[in-house]
Design goal:
Chains A, B: This is 2,3-diketo-5-methylthiopentyl-1-phosphate enolase. The structure is a homodimer. By secondary structure, the first copy, chain A, is of the alpha/beta class. Chain A is 37% helix and 16% strand.
């Protein structure tokens, strides 16, 4: 089928496992069934009217099991183009169209999405993005450093403030709430933001350094804007958000709301219910990559390949690519021969990748190599568990970053008058 | 660890697969890690303060692989009690607490949830429920019948109206929009609701029967209430909602909003990204059962075990149980010896189970047996594909229901002057 030039299409790629299915027939069934419903039985005159609504099979790549490997399975990667005209320009409509009913149809995983230029044009994307976040912090020449509160539940305001202050003293650029800290009588958001921002100012007088504090945005969906405003009015200069608990559209609306004018940090909470199975769900590069960026996340946390919560390296790199790339090839589907975007670039700011879990200073060279330096190094235990305390933990990371930027091997840099880094290496080693 | 009487707990049950893990240690790690963060190293005085925030291991059932079956795997069902005091009384907070980060921690699936009485008390549950829906329709003595539009995309208003009218003529109780019908210039919601409700009134003059039309509630999250009001003002007397594309909290808030005073029908769109894997995700009884009912769905669609989109029968029955049960044992966690609920019943109205996909009249006896008659029989192709047309398709289902209610074998009832049922049986057979 050739593509009607008059329509724009979003393209979903599925990986389907089946021992004997006719994958080409299955692809046609998807393209028709999830759009116009029926096709071959339509009268010709009706076909002419309906053609612009008809889904198209872009490609079907069948992978037969390898003869030598009894464990290898038969699967196909199927790409289907869905006309924009069929759905409104929001992520729920797109996801329900391309994977609503289909998600329940056997072993099928949504492994990629590409957007039409017109669909994409409805999304402003990250308001700050990497450049905007760097500008707020005044840091342009090095990777950023973030730390996470150690424990928060059951702690009172003075305790949180002290934890915050110690982290800030270590020279971190960002501090985020724990994602399981909700509205509670001990540390209500406006009080903890007020106190922590005071601690940030106090630390800045010591360190000369700005800091973003991402307060956890929680509570009823329809009250999220009010809750965000409450935090921002109290001084929050960033917000953390459990995107998947609320849906991508809530993030998308927050990111374009005039009153929510601070960077939004997306937490991957619940993502493990969706991406790890090879047979079901939504791949990490779509879930934590393309859709987070499309929905306007300025920073995106995801499981690092280094630590306790692991994700295979290639999935990590695919997320990174989705958050950073300016190449239109993976993002924009332009149909047969049509030009991609006017300026040939993805029209969305880049989101900061924040690989998380199990990060210690000895991993910094590896992280910077994997992420080409455009990354937020994010540590919890690697800061708080430092033998000389949390402030020293932050300094150890900053020293590791400085050493890497100067091209000096970590061990040498530590030995050269950087005892915090040395202590971190003694505790956790170096992995290159 | 004994439970502190002063706290109330919600309990999550996980199935974890691991060839050699110490599951008891893992359970303690979850109970501590997802609540207070650390425990053994706390000073005793601090422990006394923190105890009410500490998660508890309720049980760990380890299943060793069976010696005779090399394919059997080692797993454990782990139950953890989380103090209510740690999270706000909304579903995002509960899910982020019990399965936010944990979802990404290896092979682990959330297979059950039980709520504390106090958590549950924050949820009014379904506003109408089974009784309320029956009352609106004036039907108390038989299962309900629903039909779905055949195809809607690219159709204009007169075409939709005609489809609606034919379905209504067949004596169906409910008609739902296709879940992939979004706001569009051809059939905007207020226009199609107005016309379809006129068609409903017209059909009622023929059939003497009331009908609920569930219009698809779509669009921006923060505009859902306004969109619902638009549909209701145009005459919609029910709404369809793609819950998982927006998160459970959106449904929960809609269900308790004073202006959204019509039954809410939950569509399982995207659910297949979450429930089918044995190793990851959220089990169907939680996802499409307990949480939908908690969030206030009056009717819940889910894949039937009969048709093309299949779900194993026991998962179906677990969803049914979660939607219907009045037994507190599965729902309410009361800790050590405390009484469950005051009146000993789940304090939520029951949600109508709507097993969907592949339903034809010959399946009615089986469905009524499986669901004890408290069910909405929902058909698409089984109505529209009837050889005598959609109105006859509806009538065939109603005849099948009547026959079953009268205790007459379907074939005999068809032969006794019910040609529509006979034609359906000739097309699709009987499965008992």
């Amino acid at each position: 089928m050739s593509l009607a030039i008059s329509s724009a299409y979003c393209v979903a790629t599925y990986r389907c496992y089946d021992e004997k299915a006719d994958f080409h027939k299955k692809a046609t069934g998807i393209a028709v069934g999830l759009t116009v419903g029926s096709w071959t039985e339509l009268p010709e005159a009706r076909k002419a009217e309906m053609e612009k609504h008809l889904g198209r099979v872009v490609s079907v790549d069948v992978h037969e099991p390898s003869a030598g490997d009894p464990a290898s399975a038969r699967y196909a990667d199927i790409r289907i183009a869905y006309p924009d005209i069929n759905f409104s320009r929001d992520i729920p409509a797109l996801l329900v169209t391309v994977f609503g009913k289909l998600s329940m149809d056997g072993r099928i995983k949504l492994i990629d999405l590409a957007f039409s230029e017109s669909f994409l044009s409805a999304f402003p994307g990250p308001r700050f993005g990497i450049e905007g976040v760097r500008k707020l912090l005044g840091v342009h020449d090095r990777p950023l450093l973030m730390s996470i509160f150690k424990s928060v539940i059951g702690h009172d305001l003075p305790s949180l403030r002290e934890q915050f202050y110690q982290q800030a003293l270590g020279g971190v650029d960002l501090i985020k709430d724990d994602e399981i800290l909700f509205e509670n009588p001990l540390t209500p958001i406006e009080k903890r933001v007020e106190l922590c921002m005071q601690a940030a100012a106090e630390a800045e007088r010591e360190t000369g350094q700005k800091l973003l504090y991402a307060a956890n945005l929680t509570g009823p969906t329809f009250g999220l804007v009010e809750q965000a405003k409450k935090a921002i009015n109290a001084g929050a200069n960033a917000l953390l958000f459990n995107v998947l608990a609320y849906g991508f559209d809530a993030l998308s609306e927050l990111s374009r709301h005039p009153d929510v004018n601070v960077p939004l940090m997306a937490h991957p909470s619940l993502a493990g219910a969706l991406y790890p199975s090879p047979y079901h769900g939504i791949a990490a590069n779509v879930l934590l990559g393309k859709l987070m960026r499309l929905a306007g996340a300025d920073l995106v946390l995801f499981p690092s390949p280094y630590g306790s919560v692991v994700m295979p390296k290639e999935e990590n790199m695919a997320i990174k690519e989705a958050l950073l790339t300016t190449e239109t090839a993976d993002y924009i589907y332009s149909g047969d021969g049509a030009t991609a975007s006017a300026n040939g670039q993805v029209p969305l700011a880049a989101s900061f990748p924040v690989p998380s879990a199990g990060i210690h200073p000895g991993l910094v060279p590896l992280i910077l190599r994997d992420f080409n330096g455009e990354v937020v190094i994010n540590a919890g235990g690697g800061v708080h568990g430092h033998p000389m305390g949390a402030a020293a933990g932050g300094r150890a990371f900053r020293q590791a970053i400085d050493g890497c930027q100067a091209g000096i091997p970590l061990q040498d840099y530590a030995a050269d008058g950087h005892p915090e880094l040395q202590a971190a290496i003694d505790s956790w080693g170096i992995k290159e």
